[in-house]
Each structure stands twice: as C-alpha cells, then as structure tokens.
Task: inverse folding
C-alpha cells in the first residue's frame, strides 16, 4: 500500500511541474512579444498587442479544449492498454482542431480590421493591432496542431518533452522578433509571424 502511494506521488510530481511549465510557457510568448515590441516599436505597439489578447485567446480556445479533453480521454485508454482507441482519440482531436482552425483562418481577409477597431476604439491603435491579429488568425492552424501535439505528449508519458517544446517555441519567437522587427522592419506583422513560426518549429521537433 505504501509502495503504491509512493509510486502515485512520484507520477504526480513527474507530471505536475512540466504541466505548469507548459501552461506558463504558452502565455509567455505573448508577454515576450509585448516586451520586445514595446522596446522596439514603442508603447502604442505594446498596447496594440495587449488589446489583441481577447482575439488570440478566442482563437486558441478550441485547440485547448480539444487538447485537454482529448488527452485526458486518451490517457484513460492508454492506462487500459487500448492503444488503438487512444490513437483514434488523438486523430479525432487533431482533425476537429484542424477543421475549426482552418474555418477561423478563412476569415483572415475580413475579420482583423473590424476586430482591431472594436478592441482599440481609435484608428491609430487599430492600425497597429490589425496586422498582428491578421497574422495570428492566418496562423491559427499551426498553433492548434502544436497545442494538441504537446498535450497528447503529456498523456503518452512524455511530459518533459511537451513543456520543452513550448520553451523552444518561445526561444525561436524571441530570436525572430528581433530579426523580423529590427532586421526586416516588418513591424507588428513581424512580431506575430515570429510567434507562428515558433509554434511551427515546435511542431516539427
């Protein structure tokens, strides 16, 4: 009995820290964007990122729900050694996530402008937020795949790998922020593109 309790506690500690790191790392990308953009492009650009957060969180919501729910269900089947059903849960979650995210991405030409204006309340701030929102909407399928993969890695007994990939994404994002904004003068679109490529690099790992 004591051995079982020890093993359970060991497993809890094995998963809880990487899970916490993964959650923090997901939001850290937005914080990094805000800090770097604020230093390179000014306070108004940083404000534009902050007001864009509701759109970004809405875009990620479906991915997070499918990733968390699907990974939890897959973990139950993995515990029962039912690999085929667990694989089916992963496939269903990934296909559903891609379908929803591609649907969102179809609105890239029309949604960013009205959304930016609604959130900003003035044309100057909306002009800064619009390209940031546009690139994020276009890149949401990439973000969705990356999020789902990482949560299912946790369920498949690889919690450290899932959190490590989020850290890799943020490092790539940090480097590309400077490259796109400072080097190529891409402004707000460059910051958003750095985030999307960071998630893409994570998925390819």
Result:
């Amino acid at each position: 009995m004591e051995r079982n309790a020890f093993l359970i506690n060991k497993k809890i500690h094995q998963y809880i820290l990487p899970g916490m790191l993964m959650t923090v790392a997901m939001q850290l990308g937005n914080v990094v964007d805000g800090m770097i953009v604020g230093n390179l492009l000014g306070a108004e650009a940083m404000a534009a990122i902050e007001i864009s957060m509701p759109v970004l969180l809405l875009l990620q919501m479906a991915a997070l729900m499918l990733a968390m729910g699907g990974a939890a269900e897959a973990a139950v089947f993995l515990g029962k050694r039912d690999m085929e059903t667990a694989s089916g849960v992963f496939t269903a979650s990934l296909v559903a996530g891609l379908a929803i995210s591609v649907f969102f991405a179809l609105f890239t030409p029309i949604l960013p402008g009205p959304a930016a204006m609604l959130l900003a309340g003035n044309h100057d701030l909306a002009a800064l937020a619009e390209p940031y929102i546009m690139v994020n909407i276009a890149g949401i399928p990439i973000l969705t795949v990356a999020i789902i993969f990482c949560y299912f890695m946790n369920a498949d007994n690889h919690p450290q790998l899932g959190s490590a990939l989020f850290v890799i994404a943020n490092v790539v994002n940090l480097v590309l922020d400077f490259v796109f904004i400072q080097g190529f003068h891409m402004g707000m679109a460059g910051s958003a593109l750095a985030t999307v490529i960071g998630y893409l690099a994570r998925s390819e790992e």
About this structure: The mean pLDDT is 85. The two ends are 40 Å apart (CA to CA). The helical segments are 2-41, 43-79, 83-105, 112-120, 123-138, 140-155, 159-183, 187-204.
